[in-house]
Design brief:
The chain has helices at about 40-55, 115-120, 135-145, 150-180, 195-235, 240-265, 270-325, 355-370, 390-400, 415-420, and strands spanning about 10-15, 20-25, 30-35, 70-75, 80-90, 95-105, 335, 340-345, 345-350, 380, 405-410, 425-430, 430-435. With about 450 residues, the chain is α+β, with helices and mostly antiparallel strands. It folds into two domains: about 10-125 and about 370-435, Rossmann fold (3-Layer(aba) Sandwich), CATH 3.40.50; about 150-325. A hairpin with a 2-residue loop joins strand 12 and strand 13. It binds adenosine-5'-triphosphate and magnesium ion.
Length: about 450
C-alpha cells in the first residue's frame, strides 16, 4: 500500500475494474500522481475513483475486468470516518448488478446510501469532463453560477425589447407602404372639408326666391290679358262702358305698377352655386387623402421614436452586462467571460496552452466545490498531467494542498524508478498498482 504523507487520508481500493486488477493506494490532500506506461490502467484507476462518487451514470458499459466476475471500488474516508463501497457483480444472466454500501466507523450501514452520498457531495459531483472541455455555453453557465452573476432578468428584458423593436419595425414598413400608395395632394388643399350643406341651403333659398318671382311674373301677365279683354268688350257693352272704362283704367294702372315691379326683379345665378358644390366634393376628396397621409406620417414618426428607444435600451442592457462582468470577481485569476466565450488573460480559453487550461480547470473545480454545499473535500481529476512540466506539477500540488483538495493526476511514465523520482503515489503495471514512496 502506498502513502505519501499523513493526515486526512483516503484509502482507495480498486479491484477488477476496467484495466485494473488491483490498485490499493492512500491519497492525501495535494496532487496524487498515478504513474504508469500507456495502457497500464491509470485512467481505469481514475475512472474508478470518479465512479464511486458519481454513481451509476459514470459506470462504463464494460466496467468488470475481462475474466473477472465482478468489481469492487472502495474508499475509506479517514476524516469523515466512513467507508464507501461500490460493488458490481455479473449475475447468472450475464447482467451487471451494482450496489452501494456506506458504513460508518462502527460498521453501521446507511439505509439510503445514494441519498447520503448526494447529500455529502452537496450537488457537486465529480465531473468526468474538465472545465475547458465543456461547451462554451456550459462554461459560461458554470461561471455564472460560481460568480453569482445572474443575467436572467437582463436577458429577459433584452429579449422583450428585441421583440418589441422587431414588431415596431414591421409597423414602420407597413406605414411606409401605405403612405407610398396614397395619391399626392394638390397644393393649397385645406385641412378641413368644405361644408356643402351651407351651399345647399343657399341653393334652396335661391330656388324659393325664384319660384316667388315666377309667380309674380305670371300674375303680371294675367293682368295684361285682362286689360286686353276689357278693351275688346268696351264697344259692345255701352251700359257697362263706364264701368268698363273704370275697370280698364284701373287695370292699366295696375298693369303699369306690376310691370314696373317685375322690371326691378333680379334672379339668383344658380349655375355658380352648382359649380361651387361640384368643386367642393373634389376638394374634399383631396382633404380626405391629406388627413390620411398626415395620420400615417405621424404614426410613422412615433414608431421611429419607439424603435430608437428600444434600441437604446438594448444597448444600455448590453453595456450594463459588460460592466458587471468586468467588475465581477472571478474564480480563476485572469479569467473573464462575455456572452460568447471564456477568456484567460484576454485570450480565448481554447487558445490557451494546455498547462494553462489544466490549471484553470483545477481552479474552476475548486471554485465550483466552494460554491456547492459539499460536506466532503474537493476531489479533482487531472487526466492529462503528462502535459505538465515539473514546475507545473509542483504548482498543482501547492494549489491542491492549499485548498485541502485531493487531486488524482494521471501521468505517463516508463519505470517505477521514474515514478519514485517524480513523487508518484503509485506506479501501475499491467493493471497492478505498485506502491511508491518511503514505506513502499
Ligand atoms: N473491462 C475491461 N477488461 C479488460 N481490459 C479493459 C477493460 N476496459 C478497458 N480495458 C483495457 O485496460 C487497459 C488500460 O486502459 P487505461 O485507459 O486505464 O490505460 P492508461 O494507463 O490510462 O493508458 P494511457 O496512458 O494510454 O492513457 C487498456 O488496454 C484497455 O483496453
Ligand atoms: Mg489514460
Amino acid at each position: 500500500m502506498a502513502t505519501k504523507q499523513q493526515g486526512g487520508m483516503i484509502d482507495l481500493l480498486v479491484q477488477d475494474y476496467k484495466g485494473v486488477k488491483k490498485l490499493h493506494v492512500v491519497l492525501v490532500p495535494g496532487a496524487n500522481i498515478i504513474g504508469g506506461k500507456n495502457g497500464a490502467g491509470k485512467s481505469s484507476g481514475v475512472d474508478a475513483f470518479a465512479n464511486i462518487f458519481g454513481g451509476k451514470k459514470l459506470t462504463p458499459s464494460k466496467p468488470v475486468r475481462e475474466g473477472a466476475k465482478g468489481f469492487r471500488l472502495q474508499v475509506v474516508l479517514e476524516q469523515q470516518g466512513i467507508t464507501i463501497a461500490r460493488i458490481g457483480k455479473i449475475g447468472e444472466n450475464g447482467k451487471l448488478r451494482e450496489s452501494l454500501v456506506i458504513t460508518d466507523a462502527e460498521g453501521f450501514q446507511a439505509s439510503s446510501p445514494q441519498q447520503l452520498l448526494d447529500r455529502l457531495l452537496g450537488g457537486h459531483p465529480i465531473t468526468p469532463e474538465a472545465f475547458s472541455e465543456l461547451k462554451a455555453a456550459d462554461q459560461i453557465g458554470l461561471l455564472r453560477q460560481v460568480t453569482g452573476l445572474d443575467f436572467t432578468q437582463l436577458d429577459g428584458e433584452y429579449q422583450a425589447l428585441y421583440q418589441k423593436r422587431h414588431d415596431i419595425g414591421i409597423e414602420m414598413k407597413n406605414l411606409q407602404g401605405q403612405i407610398s400608395k396614397m395619391p399626392t395632394v394638390p397644393e393649397g388643399t385645406p385641412n378641413e372639408p368644405v361644408s356643402t350643406s351651407e351651399i345647399t341651403e343657399q341653393i334652396k333659398d335661391g330656388e324659393a326666391n325664384n319660384r316667388a318671382n315666377a309667380d309674380i311674373r305670371m300674375a303680371a301677365a294675367a293682368k295684361e290679358r285682362e286689360a286686353e279683354d276689357a278693351k275688346a268688350t268696351v264697344g259692345n257693352l255701352v251700359e257697362e262702358l263706364k264701368l268698363a272704362r273704370e275697370r280698364r283704367d284701373l287695370a292699366i294702372e295696375e298693369a303699369k305698377f306690376a310691370r314696373a315691379a317685375a322690371g326691378k326683379l333680379t334672379d339668383v345665378d344658380l349655375d355658380d352655386l352648382f359649380q361651387m358644390r361640384d368643386d367642393a366634393s373634389e376638394i374634399n376628396q383631396a382633404v380626405y387623402v391629406k388627413q390620411q397621409r398626415q395620420a400615417a406620417e405621424k404614426a410613422l414618426a412615433k414608431a421611429q421614436r419607439a424603435h430608437k428607444k428600444a434600441q437604446d435600451q438594448m444597448t444600455a442592457i448590453s453595456e450594463e452586462k459588460t460592466a458587471t462582468l468586468s467588475e465581477a470577481e472571478m474564480p480563476v485569476p485572469g479569467m473573464s467571460f462575455d456572452a460568447e466565450m471564456v477568456y484567460l488573460n484576454g485570450i480565448p480559453l481554447e487558445q490557451c496552452s494546455q498547462a494553462e487550461r489544466l490549471t484553470a480547470n483545477v481552479q474552476m473545480g475548486l471554485a465550483a466545490h466552494a460554491h456547492s454545499g459539499a460536506k466532503l473535500p474537493p476531489y479533482i481529476l487531472v487526466r492529462e498531467a503528462s502535459l505538465y512540466d515539473a514546475e507545473h506539477l509542483e504548482l498543482l500540488d501547492e494549489i491542491a494542498r492549499a485548498n485541502g483538495a485531493y487531486v488524482l493526476a494521471e501521468r505517463t511514465m516508463n519505470t517505477k524508478e521514474q515514478a519514485e523520482t517524480e513523487g508518484a503515489v503509485v506506479f501501475l503495471e499491467d493493471g497492478i498498482g505498485l506502491a511508491c514512496g518511503s514505506d513502499g
